[in-house]
Amino acid sequence: MSNWEKQVSDLLVGKKIVKVEWMSNAEANECGWYSRPVALLLDSGVWIYPMRDDEGNDGGALATSSNDMPVIPVFQTEETEDA
């Protein structure tokens, strides 16, 4: 196992997602983003949210293996908070 795999495994394996919400307009704007990605709160208190790239150049969508929801989308910051 690589060092990266170990670090990510330590962060994620065995944790539970306890809350799901889309990043707010204010949070996205604070990051300098135009997109509001889904944010996942783990039982460890860590928030996970997708970014466009590893430089943090905008929020990103999540691809899934679910036939019912193959993509968890982002919303533009102009859209309502009810998304």
Q: What is Rg?
A: 14 Å
Strand arrangement, major sheet: 1-3-4
Calculate the terminal CA-CA distance, rounded to whole Å.
39 Å
Number of alpha- plus pi-helical segments: 2
How many structural units, i.e. domains? 1
Q: What is the succession of H and E elements? A: HEHEEEEEE
How would you characterize this protein structure?
With 83 residues, the protein is of the alpha+beta class. It has one domain. The protein has two helices and seven strands, in the order αβαββββββ. The strands form three sheets. It has a three-stranded antiparallel sheet with strand order 1-3-4, with no helix packed on it. A two-stranded antiparallel ribbon has the order 2-7. The longest helix has 10 residues. The chain is globular and about 40 Å long. 13% of the residues are buried.
Name a few traits of the molecule.
single chain; 83 residues; alpha+beta; 3-stranded antiparallel β-sheet; two-stranded antiparallel sheet; globular
Give the secondary structure arrangement, pairings included.
Blueprint: H1 3-12, E1 17-22, H2 25-30, E2 35-36, E3 38-42, E4 47-48, E5 62-63, E6 71-72, E7 75-76
Write a concise synopsis of the structure shown.
With 83 residues, this protein is α+β, with helices and mostly antiparallel strands. It contains 2 helices and 7 strands. The strands form 3 sheets. It has a 3-stranded antiparallel β-sheet, with no helix packed on it.
